[in-house]
Design goal:
- There is one protein chain.
- This protein has 147 residues and is of the alpha+beta class.
- Helix 1 crosses helix 3.
- It has one domain: START domain (Alpha-D-Glucose-1,6-Bisphosphate, Chain A, domain 4, 2-Layer Sandwich).
- It has 3 helices and 7 strands.
- Strands 1-7-6-5-4-3-2 form a 7-stranded antiparallel sheet, with helices on one face.
Amino acid sequence: MAEHTSSSITIEAAPADVMGVIADFARYPDWTGEVKEAEVLKTDDQGRAEQVRLVMDAGAIKDDQTLAYTWTGAHEVSWTLVKSQMLRSLDGSYVLKPAAGGATEVTYLLTVDVKIPMLGMIKRKAEKVIIDRALAGLKKRVESGEK
C-alpha cells in the first residue's frame, strides 16, 4: 500500500463554513494556487459534487484530471482519481473536527502515484507542499469571510 502524506491546520470558523468553501469547486481557482479551472461534471441527490474535472498547473506538473468525490456526513470528503494525463492514482480527503472556541481542525491526507518515475522522498515532499499550500489557502479563504 502506498504511503500517504498528511497535515492539519486550525481554522477560526465552524466546520459547516469550512466545508462550504471545500465544496464550492467553482471558486477553487480563486484560492488554490494550482487549480486553474474546476468544473462539476456530476452531482449527488443532495447537490454535492460527485465528479469534478480540474485543470491543474503546479509549475513542472500540468494536468487535466477528473476526480470522484465521496461525502461522509457533514465533516468528511474524500476523493479518488477517475482519469489523468500525469497521475496513475490519487486519493485524498479532508476531515474536519470541531475545535475549541468554535474553530475547526482540518486534516488533509493525500496519496499520489505519478506515471513518471520519481523517488519516494521527492514525491512525499511534493505531496507535503501541495497539502500545506491547500490548507493555507483554505484557511485564508474561510477566515476572510469570502464565499
